[in-house]
Structure formats: structure tokens, C-alpha cells
Amino acid sequence: MNLASIDLNLFVVFEVVYAEGNLTRASEILHVTQPAVSNALARLRQTFDDPLFVRSGRGMAPTPAAQNLIGPVREALRRLQGGIEAQTRFEPGSSERVFHLAMGDVTSSLLMPALVRRLGEAAPGVRLQCHQVARREVEAELAAGTLDLAVDIPQLGRGRLCETPLVYEQRYVCVLRRGHPLGRRALDLERYLALPQVMVSGRRRGRSYVDMALGRLGHQANTVLRLPHYQPAFHVVLGSDLALSAPRSLAAWYDVDVRELPFEVPPLSSRLYWHRNADRDPANLWLREQIVAVWARRGASPRDRRRSG
Questions:
Q1: Are the CB atoms for 47 and 77 separated by under 8 Å?
Q2: pLDDT score of 193 more than 70
Q3: CB of 47 within 8 A of CB of 6?
Q4: Full set of structural domains in the chain with CATH
Q5: Staple 257 to which of 176, 231, 262, 280, CB 3.0 to 4.6 Å?
Q6: Are 285 and 156 in contact (CB under 8 A)?
Q7: Can you tell me the distance from the alpha carbon of 143 to that of 147, in angstroms, rounded to the nearest whole number?
Q8: What is the Cα–Cα distance from 298 to 283, expressed in whole angstroms?
Q9: What distance in Å separates the CA atoms of residue 250 and residue 230, rounded to the nearest whole number?
């Protein structure tokens, strides 16, 4: 297939339709009419001799050919965009760029309130979209350009990624509701193991970070409920006798009884990742600087920060 015979603008349409799965939304993002999007798809279908997208419910589902094509298309568009932006300045005050970030619910809960306030003052037109992405897929999505940045643990596979530490270590505690039957008795290991527990993990199976530390001692928590996010877990704790092991900084937002864990859990630090293709992108660099600056203030708990004004 001769690349010179293809209108490269069609690949921009293809990528947006793939991402949105809906022609109407794609036309709105591209600022063109829906018939124009349909016409572009028709030309691509003829070029590749494949329907590329088929109707599925109220949206459009990619065919296997489209799934094979999306990676190279996104990589090419990412490189082109990076090359253009590397030659231009990023003006946050007038930018309307949408940044895509991957992070878990703890990180987004601790980072987003302050980051949104900071960006609201310096870059009111900038928009953020946060996603939970499986760790094994982060590098590929950063390379493809579907993600701009990711926050994860230091063990994330590096490969072609750049990284910088986010200086603030998460320490875990045991959380109980006020008036829990344990009362003011000391939380030793025997009592901890007897407590019915809520486990928070974004994975469907396997142990949490705290449970792995407990497993190294040859013990297993009495887990009776598994949830993917901390917010519902805290609400369960507030209305039951279940215990929860959670980051201290997150527990500070809730009216709960906080106890030190009766075993050693190494503090969990985080790193900010981006693809090396975006290393010199002024917009990516600017957002990295904002995140690092905001995260550096995480050393104080929410209550401490309120007292300090």
C-alpha cells in the first residue's frame, strides 16, 4: 500500500472514532459534521477493504483489523504531535489541551483536589482525565499516546519510560469505626488477625500490599469483603465492625479510629512516569512540574494543612 496515496487526515478521524466509539461524539471533538466523519470512514474502509467499525448497541465497535491498526496509528500521531510541540512553547493560560493520566484512587484522592485548584488558577482551559489502567498496559498506552502520564509504584516496568520520584511515602494504618467492640484495647497481631477485614485491591484476585507484608510473616488476614476502591471501603467501616488497612493520609479524611499496624509494612512510595517520546514536550513537562510541586506538599495530613492555613 502506497502511503502517498492515503490522506493522512483520515487517521486522525480513525483514532478519535476508535477512542469514542461514537460518530456523534467524534464529530464534536473534531469540530466537523457527522456526515464528514462518516465520509472519512468510508474512504478508510475502501483503502483497507475492511469495515473497521461495526454497530454495537448505541456505539461503534472496532473490527480486528481496526484493533491491529490503532497502535501504529497512535504511535505515528504521537510522534508527529511531539515533534510539532517540541518546536513550540506551551502557554498554559490559553491552552485547552486535554491530558490523560493513569493513577489509582488513593493517588487521585490525594493529588487531584490541590492539582485542580492549581490548574484552575494557572491554566483554566486545561482539562484532566484520570483512568485506572492495568499496570501491564501502562507502558504501551504511554507509548501510544492514549496516556500522557502515569503515577505508580517504583516496580512498574521501565522499558522506554522516563520517571521521577514523588517524594512522599504512604504509611499504612488499621482503621476502625468509632465505638468498635475492640474498644481501647491494644491492637496486637493476634487481635488484628481475628478482625474481619475489608481488602482494597484494583485486581480481581491476589493479595493487597498490606497482605503481602503480612504473608511474609506467615499469616493471612481474615478478609470477608474485597473492594476495588477505598471510598466504599471506608463507608463499610463506618457502618460495621469490619477493619480496613489503608494509607494514613487517606484515613485522615474520615472520622475513624486509627491504630498502628502490629507488624511492619514498608512505606509505599510512588513515581511519575512518561514516555521518552514526550520527554521534551513542553506541555508534558509543564504538567509534570505541576504534579511534582503539588505532591511535595503531601507531607502533612489534611487536618494538619487546615490548621496551618
A1: no
A2: yes
A3: yes
A4: 3-86 (1.10.10.10), 98-169+269-308 (3.40.190.10), 172-266 (3.40.190.10)
A5: 176
A6: no
A7: 8
A8: 24
A9: 9
